[in-house]
Protein: Glycoside hydrolase family 31 protein
Organism: Flavobacterium geliluteum
Amino acid sequence: MITNTELEYKGDLYPSKIVAFEQEGDSIFFHTDNKVILKVTVLRDSLIRFRFTTKGYFSNDFSYAIDKTQLHGYNFLEVTEEETYYQIQTSKVKAKIQKADLRTSILDLNDNVILEDELGFHWEESYEYGGNIVKMSKSSKDGECFYGLGDKATQLNLKGKRLENFATDQYAYSKDQEPLYKVVPFYIGLQNKQSYGIFFDNTFRTFFDFCHERRSVASFWAEGGEMNYYFFYGPKMQDVVTSYTDLTGKPELPPLWVLGYHQCKWSYYPENKVKEIASKFRELKIPCDAIYLDIDYMEGFRCFTWNKEYFPDPKKMVAELADDGFKTIVIIDPGIKIDKDYWVYKEALEKDYFCKRADGPYMKGKVWPGECNFPDYTNPVVREWWAGLFKELISDIGVKGVWNDMNEPAVMEVPNKTFPMDVRHVYDGNPCSHRKAHNIYGTQMARATYHGVKRFAYPKRPFVITRSAYSGAQRYTSSWTGDNVATWEHLWIANIQVQRMCISGMGFTGSDIGGFAEQPTGELYARWIQLGVFHPFCRTHSSGHHGDQEPWAFDEDVINITRKFINLRYQLLPYLYTMFWQYIEEGVPMLKPLVYYDQDDIQTHYRNDEFIFGNQILVCPILEPNSLGRRMYIPRGEWYNYWTNELAIGGREVWIDTKFDEIPVYVKAGAIIPKYPVQQYVGELEFDELTLDLYYKNGKENSVVYEDAQDGYDYKKGRYSFLSFRSIGKEKELIVQLHKEGKYETPYTKYRINFIGLPFRVKEIEIDNEIISFDRTNFDTEGSLVIDKEFNELHLIGW
Ligand code: GLC
């Protein structure tokens, strides 16, 4: 652990003057007198990689984070030499590299400085471990703001904070506690209306200091490895995030049911308890798609075994649950019990798959099963073996998803809560110690799990959820925010963590609704579910030590609120699925903090609570007890109150009255929101209408709806349906244009369009330029029109 203050350490070394430079295609090398090499690689016009070595040569270039299918290629690249610096120019930015010391500044084409080195790259030799502690410092101006970095439990804007990245099992963490479970060394800077991003792709323990130590300096450093970072230019935050997400990868679509509601607890057992929980959901008509088995389903916590006393016939149980629409998800941890009669242990031992200490013996640590050894998931052969272990669970028993936990990796009864640092890892052919592999251990476990589940679930889609993750883990897995607590403060934290994960490329995330540790009051649970249904992943989970956390553990009001909000989530499934599609296709985060939504409005820069769900719904949770309202900021534009349909003009902070069974939800004027009927689980009902809620706006607005078979891979062959709507509102007119793409034929044949906020009475309706007659059968007084889905243009003309 580094304890000295980062920047003023006297032992720091700096690059000296440039003595040689050469260009090889998209890379430019600068050699200094003291053997430092800076390699600048132009990946895209607004994406530049900076990689330093102090040895006079580069080691093998290997990263678990980078997606090999990322887009690259630029339009323009020119390197010029000036008297005191070299300049690398693309069609978007210029980087100036000082001849004297490699210090770099990046400017836009109008010569506005976007980001500039303070001391720039410097380092300290690590005599204890060998290698360097690598450091970077950048100048920061007063108004600069910082966002990103994954699961941090602190305010959204990180200005003034120092943060640490070291994956840690942080049971019942508190606000501002560092470090947490995930490691996303990516941040976004916003200065003078320009956004940029930095991804410091280094898996050692890293630190980020955003003007905490010195007001005008932002710095980051790692306890080993290389100074290796990517610079993204916006100037829109949207572009920074999508380009980071493209670089580190996107997931595939989950099956639609995964976007439903999930119920979990530590632990549901035996079998009749699981079934009782499931049937209670159906009885109370609270939709639910998934139920989880936590560690007690196993025999003595041995992964890939079943406790036959609690679960005598798992296959039968899983099938019966499936008949009722429930998918079964099971937990699998990395620790393999040391037990010579346990087949998984025996196999791994025979094949020499466990992690070893530097001196040779297998690394031993205690977790739930007692003493365990731990597979080295950084070995591709081990990952392949691990993937194969899922055959029985998935193919034979019918489990639909796997939950990976304790993969920071967590070890009990030791002060550092994890492996000793000398443990050796294969690291895909780049052997190293746990210092380097620690932060990616969980991701490699989830990756192996994903490949296993996918293989055996095929032709259906897999579902994996993990607790620990490093940048890029989103390609394989969803995640949750770990062991939170049933407190109001944690509701605030959950709201921020999920937004932050969304702008950190890893948006398929949710919190343990209601809190994991301790017991929520009914009111807290209700407020949490009201937020949780707007998170990409929606699951109630609890430690179960203090009581029950199913909706019916609370009073009638809370049960009704839970049903009302889960119903709303199920109605919004096509909207949610569409935002997921935009995430996997374009890297657009599913939730958008207000600053992401409108960075030019400085009112948004320090907002935490409000966010945009998808593109067109504004949500603001109630985060305090006994509140029937709150102050909130409505971003610029026109918004309809979802509950009252009243129009609000944004760009201001207002007091909003709510009820206990409501939180502030607004829909953007002009939006068309697709809805399905409430179902108890995905696929329960066949229906002939897609509901479209159209919120009138005087002006234009686009809305899209993505649909497909809801599972399987046909969508990759073009079998999807993509509807693009454009609504054009005028004083006494409304035009809706529809453009369709894709080869998937949606099962419904009609749209039911609900017109909200129409400022005129309808005199005439034309569909594709033909006047249609309308009466109560297709256009009722509430303003809802039922029409055939095959239309190109709908035209309402008013009085
Ligand atoms: C860890 C997990 C939690 C799980 C428990 C038992 O605390 O974070 O979700 O329920 O272990 O497996």
